[in-house]
Amino acid sequence: MTHKHDKSSAFSQGVLIFVYLAVLTAVEFFVAVKLNSIQIMLLIALVKAGLVMYYYMHIYKLNTSDEGDEHSYSFKSGTNRIGLWMFLLSDSFVFGGLLVMRFNLLGLTRPHLDQNLGLLVTAVLLISSFFMNRAETSIEHGDRKGFVTNIIITLILGIGFLLGVVAVEWPRAIEEGITASSNTVGAAFFMMTGMHAFHVLTGVIFLLIVLRNGAKGLYDKHSYPVEAAAVYWHFVDLVWIFFYPALYLIGVVAG
Amino acid sequence: MKKNTVGSGLLLLFVAGAIGYGLGLGFDALINGAPNFSGSTSAAFALLFAVSAFFFGLYGYRGITRGLVWQVVGTLAGGLFISGIRALMGYKFSEIFGSFFFSEPAWVFGALVGVISFLSGVGVMDDWMKWVRGIDTHDHHEDEPGWEKYFSVSLDHKVIGIQYTVTALVLISVGGLFALIFRTELAYSQLQFLTTTFKLFNQNGPQIYNSLMSLHGMIMIVSILLGVSGIINYVVPLLIGAHDMAFPRMNAFAYWIAVPASVLLLMSLVLGGFDTGWTGYPPLSARAPVGVQMFFLGVFTAGWSSILGALNVIATVIRMRAKGMNAMRMPIFVWAAIATSIIALTATQLIGLSFQLVMFQRLFGMGFFDPAKGGNPVLFQHLFWFYSHPAVYVFVLPGLGIISELLPVFARKPLFGYRWIAMSSLGIALVGFVVWAHHMFTSGMNEYLRVPFMYSTMLVAIPTGVKFFSWVATLWKGKIETPTPMLFVLGAIFVFLLGGITGPPNAMVALDLHLHDTYWVVGHFHDTIFGGFVFPFFASIYYWYPKATGRRMNEFWGKVHFWLMTPSFLILTFGMMYIGLLGMRRRIVDYDAALGFDPTHLVMTICAFGIALSVLIFFINFFHSMKNGEKAEGNVWNSRSPEWQVPSPMPAHNYEVPFEVVGEPYDYGLPGSKYVQFITPTKKK
């Protein structure tokens, strides 16, 4: 099942999807600047989400039915995969609720934030997903060294995103007068980025665990934990695909 | 020996309660200058100490006791940590410690640490921590024999199911006790004993009334969620022929996280209480005492129990069905469990989020629901009811599933319209997602939303009507037997019918403007919950009790339970609806004698005690029959269901010989038909 593609074609597919996502993000940014059309931005976000879900998170694996015995590793992994996706479904209701909260309170206004920084952290998270995909592909083909290298890059980028939001963006926002207690703009901004950052943090912890055990060679044969960490990491990226336009691009700056 | 353990548990309960109370008085004296005998600190310490000590006496320092002790220690450590930080930040002593001992942020953080400490203390995360370190664990853990396995972590779904059920029964009695207290106060107009001079936990009588009324709601809801999980956990793997749930450790986690959640809910009462009702609407909840934070955290943690439990159920049903059990041959209760789990898995996040937002509003001044900062209180109601309306379908769908499951057994006839019933459960679940705003017709939301939500709400009557039609058709010309479980099933149908037909009037916008927040609504939802959950819950306990214990519950006392509870309950809710229509408001401690409601209230109070007495009879029967009940090791109810084809009590790893589904599940009375066939082992190996 995991060896359906050979390694290099899986890698090149990862590159292709990354290029699509990067181009779409750039287009989204220019749509925001030039047209400010919510419909087009929503469409782009949905396409990006679809790409991530299909090519990075491999949602189609839910449908494979080639397991044998009930106690076999592939059967158990199939069950775990269903459990993980249901957890993500559940979790997405939290983020959905946050988006409802944001649009109810702020409407078509947005906080006054640094556009360059926003684009930068978005790019960092997107690139980290690319390396996560490479790490997963490596371990599935038994390449432990490639796995370790790629997951360390993912971790660095993930921590970079986290610091970019919490250690750079937050203090800057506070300098701009956007504080948690000032008004609903600040409340929505800190709640949404905070909840997302919390998920990135848990993802980083998840990746550290997977890195430690993977480096010891525990996943050479049975690599489901890496897949689970990857799917979770991509999910966090997926959430940001919607949060980024919702916080940085849509509407006009709140006065 | 065992009698001594309960005795020493109770002894320690009182001793430690007294020590905790004294300790609290000491802290009070230290911080406020004088001991406060009706204060919250002493009560909180007394509660924490007493509960932990009771389990210590009963069970020793392991399992649940260790969890509770760790929770106490964790709560104190977390609270002191935040207090220390606040001290470093230069807060004054009186701001770090106040009338509730810790300040509010310290309590919140402490409670959170306490929950995590409980989970580590009880040991439910041990295997996961081993996985993190790369150590493999066994799939099957051997449990201790006897009653002791129920007090520590077990991975067996049958043990967890019973843990859930018993916890649910404990919480039902706590919530019922609260109801009896405020029901007694309501028996006559004017304030009798919950007067303004009455002082308890820093609250006066009417405030205590509000706290008890609010907690009655939420404790009952949590107990229902646990009861639902209990029945599903015990029964679903047996019905589908699985050896356990798909994720046994998460199953145990989902149960054990509900225990500290219950402690937090009780702590909300002693930490100043709250007067918002179970809905916790801001702006009132943004101003209530610190108790409301404990309430929010308790609901939040209980919500995780519900979410993870639901996830487990869906995965189990998708992956672990017996050979030949395709979707249209699943027992009907499994369909109900799936429908209820879909709601619990997704919508529960929204009540967690809405409560979290209020918590942050209180802690950090974030103005989500504060109009002064541009916030919108109606937004809270939308987020809250997006879960809390579908939640009632989480409560009733399994109950309706039990009715459909048991009815053909006792009517000795095929279930009428199997496919329609299965689909109606899913239909109720899906329609349930788009009806939430019918709770908000008077809340000041956009008026154009009223009519669509009125129609979507009335749409719920269609799948529910399908169920009623099928039940009546199943009973039609059946050879009806009426042992206790069937009595409760019939009672459930009747009571749920009353709950059902009193619903559409509330759905009509025009009528709801009059009915909103009256006792009519209280009568309506007690009918739906009793008919949809409580009666089927008792039915399933009487029905599956022999499966779990190998003994039957006493039939005579079971019938007494039914014939005492049903009329009491009906008179109680008729009374509620009657005075509700005449204008009796919900959630108030007192009413004007001139309204003439006194006699009705008195009758209702008497009936409430009737229900309490019947439940007491049930409890005695429940515990007495474990040792002394009539032996019942075979197919007691002459059922076709697989779990009754093997001897009771159920073997540790369920079916030693797997079965195969060869026919329709409910073809009772058809000669020669068979549902399951055990696969005789072939000489493969």
Characterization of the model:
The complex is a heterodimer of chains A (255) and B (685). Chain A has helices spanning 7-35, 38-56, 73-106, 115-140, 144-175, 184-215, 224-249; strands at residues 109-110, 252-253. With 255 residues, chain A is an all-alpha fold. Chain A has one domain (7-253): Four Helix Bundle (Hemerythrin (Met), subunit A). In chain A, helix 4 (115-140) runs antiparallel to helix 5 (144-175) and helix 5 runs antiparallel to helix 6. Chain B has 685 residues and is mainly α. Chain B has a domain at 479-654: Cytochrome C Oxidase, Chain A (Up-down Bundle), CATH 1.20.210. Helices cover 66% and strands 2% of the residues of chain B. Chain B is built from 23 helices and six strands. Chain B starts with a helix and ends in a 7-residue tail after the last strand. Classes of the chains: A mainly alpha (255), B mainly alpha (685).
A few lines on this structure:
The complex is a heterodimer of chains A (255) and B (685). Chain A has 255 residues and is an all-alpha fold.
